[in-house]
Amino acid sequence: MPPRRKSPRGALPLGLAIGLCAGSAHAYPTSIVYSPNGEALPFGGFAIGAYVGVGLSPQPVHFGSGWGGLDIGVLPSIELASTPAGKIAIAGAELGFDLFGPDADGRPTAVFNVKLQLLKEATYWPAISIGMFQISPDSKRGAALGYFTMSKSFTIRDAEIGQLTFGMMRSFAADALIAPQCFVSGAQACLFRGSRPFLDDNGAFLAGYLSPWFGPVGFAIDHVGGTSAVSSTNVALNFRLWQDSSSGFLAAGIGGFFSNDRRAAPEGPGAEDGMFLQVTLVTSVAGLTGWDPMKPSSGKKKDRDVRGRPEDPLDAPPLTPPTPTATPSSTTAPPAP
To answer: What is this structure's pTM?
Structure first.
């Protein structure tokens, strides 16, 4: 996920990690750790992830959840305009599917996500994306979170210092299942409730930092606000195990998650903290096979018309009048014998 991302300008275009908190579940678009970032997978790119989480607090230590997912880039970049500051382009779109469980009722849950990158990052503006995740066919199991995010990479004297992300999200689930109506509707639990500064409301901030790779190691920290299946403040340390010719990679990561609402139950939802392990493969058709579906073939077409085709007079070079050959001058008298 995440995701993350070309190293801000290289190895992590697609995200560093894709995961979920112990005891809960995620449908993840390209992300930092858990927070969606401003970049989408390129056309033909895909990300496969697996995760296991363990709750450490409250005691006793307990298994949280298992997860697996797939995201695919489904739209090529489309250039809209070219400016002295850089190209203005829609960078692509991705679709994803995740299966996690067991949920509180002991059953696995399938969820979907979609992301559209509205603007490709350039020198003076960030990558910007909108999307939705936690979309479930069962409306009582998915928070249907809509979001927008902005991500910008920074360098100092040609040295990469990482990528920053900021955004917001809100739930589009039924009002009776989200805060504040879920407190009076008789719902067994709230699918989403805000944390500070949107305490017990329907809204949250997204924020995060993704480092460049330091050799085979990279780290990330992010915040997905509120209390929900995807909400926590997270840190992750990732180890790159393999890299392909197109900057795709296989990485293993270890990290921790921390609850955003530290109020004691029953006033608040209770704080659950823990750790997770994950494995993520981010690559593309070009990275695995060397064939890029977006690049035209370099081979020349053979002309099967042995008679040839008539020349188009509009394609012929313009005619130029002949240049007369200079003749020797006769005005100079021959030397006297």
So the answer is: 0.77
Query: Do 142 and 134 form a contact (C-beta atoms < 8 A)?
Result: yes
> Does residue 24 sit within a domain?
no
CA dihedral 131, 136, 139, 143 (to 10 degrees): -50
CA distance linking residue 2 with residue 13, whole number of Å: 10
Profile the chain (337 residues) by mean pLDDT over runs of 10 residues.
30 30 46 92 91 89 84 91 80 90 76 94 92 91 94 92 97 95 89 92 96 94 92 94 86 94 74 91 80 58 44 51 56 51
Residue 232 token pair: 């926590």
Nearest to 113 by CA among 89, 91, 129: 129
In a domain, 277, yes or no: yes
Burial class for 243, CB neighbours closer than 10 Å (0-12, 13-18, 19+): middle
In-domain check, residue 85: yes
In a domain, 205, yes or no: yes
Per the structure, how many domains does the chain have?
1
Which residues constitute the domain of residue 176?
45-288
